[in-house]
What does this fold into?
Amino acid sequence: PVVVSGRTAGAVRAQAEGLLGLAGQRLLDVGCSTVVSRSVFEHRAVVLAGGEAELVAGLGAVVAEEPAAGVVAGVAGASGGGRSVFVFPGQGSQWAGMAVRLLDDSEVFAEAMGR
It folds into this structure.
């Protein structure tokens, strides 16, 4: 994934256009740099690319503000839903029956789990 963000939609387009010049670089390095070395702002786009052609096509779609496969764009917090999410990252902290009590105690969680 290559993450592009900015304070405005125009800033996202400008950053995507600038990243097009890095298309010949290693995708892993480009993707990592966009997350680790840059601030993340509310206007965002993520390009999922498995190769240079997909990266160029995805960044081009961001610049043109067009939908494309492997590209997700939007504004963080724009929905105003205030929804929560639980993430179990797979780092060894899980145990059998981990969310059973939450499932029993929280109607919202139980409903979200289809119970």
